[in-house]
Design goal:
The protein is of the alpha/beta class and about 425 residues long. Helices cover about 35% and strands about 15% of the residues. The structure holds S-adenosylmethionine (SAM) and zinc ion (ZN). Zinc ion (ZN) binds next to strand 14 and helix 13. S-adenosylmethionine binds next to strand 11.
Length: about 425
């Protein structure tokens, strides 16, 4: 396992692909990602895409798929490319472009996760099934742990009148390997707001009892007062039991976490259009890491995951292409109770891997290989035009092969698909069978 080559408490203002590619392998314990995607709402395209600033649905065009990404996916794992193109056929080019964007980043996330690490991908039902197919292919279906439904409390009613109003997000939870860190969480039983109004004591069996005066004007308290009047025929007293809470194990449907986005009722709301609640991130981080572990959020937005990690004494790295992330993390850290003086690092570059001799692929690798191979496919030996030859990892990435010049070759489409996720010996045997 390599050493982490990024300082704790670093926010990168950069494209996360460049940053992820610079992080050493197997040194992150938890990745939470909440990538931009929600057709019909004002989510932005990546700032470096041709349509930065426009609404998502109009902007994820096939032109946004960089040729380099397509090459990398095809070469790394034809099965993954098959999933991406199948989604394109089912939904349209915008989904194919979107999945291509996510896919090259997921390859890196998978690589940087420790064997005991986990990844949570936060998405909504528009793309969750395509993203799950992608994750099944990259991580392996045996590494799928949960589909968590976050059925948020509150939240504005949006959408058409002739459908059920939306009320949930989906979190896809995968482990990197067969053993992973997990601490079974219990439901958030009482909000801070309630605690400030009522006293509380814990029963021996884990139940929480809230007691105290219910003589306030708020609607729910007026309701409690009426209930006491009706049930006992008297006014409520200061030591009356207001609630009894028996915290149960958190199952895969989370109904106890409110939506805080754009809601001034919650102190943590900073007006970031896609802000996620701190408690949601705290639950994930507490469940899937130990104190001191490293949490990475490659689409950190207003840095909710970073704040939650800091509160819980984990190390953290945030990446966002927007400048806002660094300002927000500074502001929120100073305002978050229990965090205190914040000394973080802001970087606009990307890290350089220190766990390999030579990393990266030359920009003209196709031309170089075409020359070296005399325009022939390394498998069948037939001559092709350059555009009909595909980049292939000689040792597949899933078997530890590097994405670097010395592990690349050009194969024709037939040879590349036949080789699939295997090594050259397999292809040679298959070619001999076909020729016989
Ligand atoms: C849905 S928001 C994340 C919100 C975050 N979970 C929070 O609680 O604030 C997605 C974020 O991804 C960022 N983003 C989009 N493309 C990116 C890229 N290529 N690299 C890094 N960040 C990117 C956007 O700037 C946006 O802040
Ligand atoms: Zn061939």
């Amino acid at each position: 396992m390599a050493e982490l080559n990024v300082d704790n408490r670093t926010v990168f203002t950069n494209d996360n692909l460049d940053v992820l590619r610079g992080i050493n392998s197997e040194c992150i314990d938890l990745i939470y990602l909440d990538p931009p995607f929600n057709p019909g709402r004002q989510w932005q395209a990546p700032l470096d895409s041709s349509a930065a600033g426009a609404v998502f649905d109009d902007v994820w065009a096939l032109d946004d798929m960089k040729a380099e990404w397509v090459d990398q996916i095809e070469a790394s794992d034809p099965a993954v490319w098959a999933v991406v193109t199948a989604a394109g056929r089912a939904y349209g080019g915008s989904m194919q472009a979107y999945l291509t964007f996510i896919c090259v980043r997921l390859f890196e996330m998978h690589r940087v996760l420790k064997q005991t690490g986990s990844l949570y991908l936060h998405c909504d039902p528009t793309a969750s099934h395509y993203l799950k197919s992608l994750l099944d292919t990259i991580f392996g279906p045996h590494c799928f742990r949960n589909e968590v439904i976050w059925h948020y409390r509150g939240g504005a009613l949006t959408g058409a009148r002739n459908v059920y109003p939306r009320k949930h997000d989906t979190l896809l939870f995968y482990s990197r390997g067969s053993q992973w860190t997990f601490h079974q969480p219990r439901e958030v039983d009482i909000s801070e707001q309630m605690l400030s109004r009522w006293g509380r004591y814990l029963e021996d069996d884990g139940r929480t009892v809230l007691y105290g005066s219910i003589k306030h004007e708020r609607a729910e308290e007026a309701r409690s007062r009426r209930r006491v009047l009706r049930t006992f025929g008297r006014e409520p007293r200061d030591d009356d039991v207001a609630f009894e809470v028996n915290p149960s194990l958190v199952r895969s449907v989370w109904t106890d976490i409110p939506e805080v986005r754009n809601n001034p009722r919650y102190k943590e709301s900073v007006g970031y259009p896609t802000q996620k609640p701190l408690v949601l991130l705290e639950r994930i981080i507490e469940a899937s890491t130990n104190a001191g572990d490293v949490v990475l959020d490659p689409f950190c937005g207003c840095a909710t995951a970073c704040i939650a990690a800091e509160k819980l004494e984990r190390q953290w790295i945030g990446i966002d292409i927007s400048n806002l992330a660094w300002d927000l993390v500074n502001r929120r850290m100073t305002e978050t109770p229990g965090v205190g003086l914040f000394r973080g690092h802001h970087r606009v570059d990307h890290p350089i891997r220190t766990d390999q001799a030579s990393a990266g692929v030359s920009p003209d690798i196709r031309e170089t290989l075409y020359d070296v191979q005399d325009g022939k496919c390394v498998g069948c030996g037939d001559q092709f035009r350059m555009r009909n030859l595909e980049l292939d990892h000689i040792t597949p990435r899933s078997k530890g092969g590097r994405h670097s010049d010395d592990n690349l070759q050009l194969l024709c489409g037939w040879c590349n698909r036949t080789k699939g996720n295997r090594d050259m010996n397999y292809l040679r045997v298959r070619l001999r069978e076909v020729e016989d």
